[in-house]
């Protein structure tokens, strides 16, 4: 699969997630090696208005989304792959005022489970805020209706 198709698929996938739209997340980079998403720093992700520190839940959302959508980079066909397990090791707090980035890659794909790993960072990927590993269940390509997005939400 071409990098341009991977990028298109990841952008489309992200655009369907309402909470990601509200947070302003966007695809920074996507190819067969992995996915990088950007979570812009904003008041919506602050845990303490006085300090400006980012809430841990925002980082969890960024990394669950990044790992989940990274499955698109590893699969030939689109599949829904819900989270089975997600472990995040926080290294240090995110700096106030700076965007956050999440990078994830799929390092093993089996017929039933996809294994991912990645990091959350701000200015330098070599200085991660958190490390993450996640597993995602493969539901199969027959689960997805390619026309669902065009139809809109079901009643």
Automatic annotation (TrEMBL):
GO molecular function terms listed in the Swiss-Prot or TrEMBL record: 1,4-dihydroxy-2-naphthoyl-CoA thioesterase activity
SUPFAM superfamilies per the UniProt record, alphabetical: Thioesterase/thiol ester dehydrase-isomerase
Chain ranges of the Thioesterase domain: 52-127
GO CC annotations on file: cytosol
Taxonomic superkingdom: Bacteria
Xref: InterPro entries: HotDog_dom_sf (IPR029069), PAAI_dom (IPR003736), Thioestr_dom (IPR006683)
Keywords recorded for this protein, A-Z: Hydrolase
Name under which the protein is recorded: PaaI family thioesterase
Origin species: Stutzerimonas marianensis
